[in-house]
Model the fold of this input.
Amino acid sequence: QWQLVEFGGGSVEPGGSLRLSCVISGFPLDLYAIGWFRQAPGKEREGVSCITSSGGTTNYANDVKGRFTISRDNVQKTVYLQMNSLEPEDTAVYYCAAGWGSGRTMCLLQTNEYDYWGQGTQVTVSS
Done:
């Protein structure tokens, strides 16, 4: 049975860092692109970053470029999101998601591209 579980959320002051992990089981990770999304209260879920199945291409939302870095370890079946220089506007529940990606050279930050979702982890940035 497929499963995505997020770890690493928490509370941090502005300017701080967190690293989120998404541990995947139940399907061959090397065939799937992985995306990170977030949803703040009262707002729609939005794409943050994604990485192709091979790990060769990444994509970032404009407001996180230069601050967040996505990476994957297909052997460990884990995808990471390193978040630096966090801002209060980054406060949200963060979700990882998997979408079919075999042979694709790009990934998209659209929720309808992803079929499997984790339960989310809360990230709070405040002083």
